[in-house]
Amino acid sequence: MKKGRGSGPLFRCICVSTKCLLGARFRNRLGIAMHHSSTLLAAFATSLACMEVAHATALRVEPVLLELNAPAAAASLTLRNDEDAHVEVQTRVLRWSQSDGKESLEPTTDVVASPPAVRMAPHSDYVVRVVRVSKQPVNGEESYRVIVDQLPRAGGGQGRSVNLLVRQSIPAFFRGREISRPQVSWALRTEAGQLTVVTSNAGDERLRIANLRLKDSSGATLSFGNGLLGYVLGHSSMSWATLKYPRGFGSGGSISVTADTDKGQTHAVIESQTRR
Fold first, then answer.
1. With contact defined as beta carbons under 8 Å apart, do 176 and 134 qualify?
2. Domains of the chain by range and CATH?
3. What is the largest CA-CA distance in the chain?
4. How does pLDDT run across 12-52, given as a tens digit for each residue?
């Protein structure tokens, strides 16, 4: 792995073409004797000839979360282009909601990004404003995602270079003057061969969930991975499913829940009547 000046890592992908390999096999069938070491050298030379370079983009966005308390209605995102070339960037805002355990992102005119598109010079910074333009007061907490896309360069598909473009999704929350804390309950269901945890939030404020662990009455444990699992938004429910869980997990008795949240570690119990 090689790093270019002021840019992200440079990844090189070695590709041996099918044509080259077939040609070698055809020559073998004709009885052309090739020493084993010579074959390896030929394959390596072929791989170098077929080599492509993938450039990881170096577009950064700060901060990684926006939270505004009324009456504040505007915040700033700083875009940083660490590349040696110009970068085209598009920024837009989508309303973020959750229903029946699933997330959705929809276009909105209540919150806008200004400017929505910019061409950034090499090694430059640019400030994008995220502004709530709706005149209606915030009720509870409104949730949005600010989507920052690096657009493909014109003629970027030519040559042997592959551009790995980046999309960044920044959570943005606008909070009313009065807001209730998260009030979370948990449920568990098993269907179609998968186990699903359902988290419901009766409060106004979202809850960020990480390092979710379940433990049943027999002592069997189930992990939903290390690190961030996701958010459950205010007055919403979110579900997470897994196909890999211990046989008979939670078949009797209660299940304990442990998770790390942005409000601290949480502990809960899923009783048998809350499982389906």
1. no
2. 2-56 (no CATH), 59-175 (2.60.40.10), 184-274 (2.60.40.10)
3. 84
4. 332 333 333 334 443 344 343 444 444 444 444 444 344 44
